[in-house]
Each structure stands twice: as structure tokens, then as C-alpha cells.
Amino acid sequence: MKETNKDNKQLLLIDDDPNLILLVKDYLEFRGYRVTTAENGPDALEILERGANAAKAGEIPDMIICDLIMPEMDGYAFLEKIRRDSRFSGIPVIFLSPEGDSQDKVTGVTAEADVYMVNPFEPEELVARVESSLKQAGRLLKRSTRIHSLDVTPVQVQGNVELTPTELKVVQLVAQGLANREIAAKLNVSQRTIESHVSNMLHKTGLHNRTELAQWAIESNIIFLYS
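The structure assignment produced for this chain is given below.
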């Protein structure tokens, strides 16, 4: 029986293989998701732009599933563009790749993808990854709501702070409450590297500690708030 709920989540599927697009789209829609498709990065960016300009906020996808190897713009280049755009930087991204090399996986994660999956994969595994990432985004949204509803003094940051793609990933994990060693393990880098990123972000923002940094990330909608 077809599932029809899934909280009406909108997914954006990007792949230049029409057979994979058809298979994955049908399966995800069968599981209750709304799915928009694009054949390449530029087309996907146009879809995101239209969604951001639409009257309904629901036009922005809750998650992006993106092929890594594509003509015109590969997955890395596409991801770099959206992670630098505050309107889309918080959207969870799943990379699909035919490459099984461990270094490729490390590159995919450090490039700010949330999940890296090697193709071929079982459809059920993809659904499980989608649901897990969406739940994580939902938890962050609830945490943000609690912060805004409590009598908490907003942190003050002067000017426009530009974070690197890696800093964006680190601050998202800081906002989830992860310690530096946990973030280091998740991103497969040294703890000293994470400490350096946190220190750089504190310097850029003029904040005093990780708690203020996490609060600023939530209040500024830097973390996953497209839910």
C-alpha cells in the first residue's frame, strides 16, 4: 500500500541518468514524499531559485539528493554553491556516487554533504537515510523554536559574517551539541582542526564561547531550518 504522509516533505533529486531518476522518484513518491527532479546542477539551481522566490516557503526542498558525477556541474561544485547561499545552506544533502573509494567518501563528507551513498544501493537504504537526515533537521528546528520561545538574550554579531563551507558544517554540528572530538570523528579530521575552525568562527563573530556560537547559528538560520 502506498504511503501518503511523510509530513508532505519535498525532495529535490538531481541526476543525469533518466533511468535512475525514474526508479528513485517512483520509489520515494510511493513512500509518500513529493519529488522534484533535475538533470544537472544548473537546472537544480534554477529550481531552488524559483522556490525561494515563490509565495509559499514549502517550495524550497526539505532535502536534496544529488549525483556526484554529472556534466556541466558536478556534485561538489553544486554543493559549494548552495552552501554559500544562506537561503539554501541548511538543506540536508545526500550524495550518490558510483565511486567506492574511501578517499572519495571523505571528500564527499568534507565537501559538506550530510550523507554519502555508493550506487548501486537498495531503495530501502536510501529511504532510511532520507528519514534519518530529515529527523535530524527536525530536531534542530525544535531546538531553535525553544531558544526563541525562552527568555534568552539574542547574541549580537556585527556585520555580515562569511563562513567557509567547512565552518558551516562545523557550526551546524556545534549547534547540535556535539563536542569537538565528536565533530572531528564525524568529519574524519583531527580534533585540533576542529578547534581551529571554532576559534576562527569566534574571532569572526566576536563571540566568547561555543554556546554563544551555537545560539547565533540557530538565531541566524544557519543550521537546518527548512523543515
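Interim note for the steering committee: The first strand starts at residue 10 and ends at 14. The beta strands are 10-14, 34-38, 63-67, 93-97, 115-118.
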